[in-house]
């Protein structure tokens, strides 16, 4: 349900007796939309680096994320062969937490919206 207000002529000499859809105008100026602002999850990317052994990267994925060995090895191979891998997704706060955890293990990691990964 949209909220509308009628501008009074005394308050708005340029726009006289105009009905304004407040929610639409707010969305237009803020560039947000309720349907898309919370729908897009955030992802954590782990990047290939010249320092860490593949076995260590797999171990981190198993110990931190709780992935089975096969999934951890698959993700590790993506990092090694393709240069990066999406290792988790969720809210921005979860992505920030997981990225910080990867940094604490010495891995190169970043996070971004899933539609930008």
List the SSEs and their pairings.
Layout: E1 4-6, E2 19-21, H1 22-30, H2 34-37, E3 42-47, H3 54-65, H4 69-82, E4 84-90, H5 92-104, E5 108-113
Antiparallel strand pairs: 1-2, 3-4, 3-5
Helix pairs in contact: 3-4
Plain-language structure description:
Binds to the N-terminal domain of the chaperone ClpA. Belongs to the ClpS family. Involved in the modulation of the specificity of the ClpAP-mediated ATP-dependent protein degradation. 44% of the residues lie in helices and 21% in strands. The model is unreliable at 4-18 (pLDDT under 50). A 3-stranded antiparallel β-sheet has the order 4-3-5. Strands 1-2 form a two-stranded antiparallel ribbon. The protein folds into 2 domains: 4-37, no CATH class; 42-116, Ribosomal Protein L30, Chain: A, CATH 3.30.1390. The protein has 117 residues and is an alpha+beta fold. The chain starts with a strand and ends with a strand.
Low-confidence stretches: 4-18
Count of distinct structural domains: 2
Question: Order of strands across the biggest sheet?
Answer: 4-3-5
DSSP, total strands: 5
CATH architecture title of the largest domain: 2-Layer Sandwich
Beta-strand portion reads: 15-25%
- What structural category arises from helix and sheet content? alpha+beta
What coarse outline follows from CA principal-axis ratios?
globular
CATH topology label of the largest domain: Ribosomal Protein L30, Chain: A
Radius of gyration: 23 Å
């Amino acid at each position: 349900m949209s909220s509308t207000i009628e501008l009074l002529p005394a308050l708005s000499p340029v726009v006289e007796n105009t009905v304004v859809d407040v929610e639409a105008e707010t969305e237009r100026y803020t560039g947000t939309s309720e349907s898309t602002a919370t729908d897009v999850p955030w992802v954590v990317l782990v990047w290939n680096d010249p320092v860490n052994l593949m076995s260590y990267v797999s171990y981190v994925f198993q110990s931190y994320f709780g992935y089975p060995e096969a999934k951890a090895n698959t993700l590790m191979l993506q990092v090694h062969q393709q240069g990066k891998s999406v290792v988790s997704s969720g809210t921005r706060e979860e992505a920030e937490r997981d990225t910080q955890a990867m940094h604490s293990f010495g891995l190169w990691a970043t996070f971004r919206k899933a539609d930008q990964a």
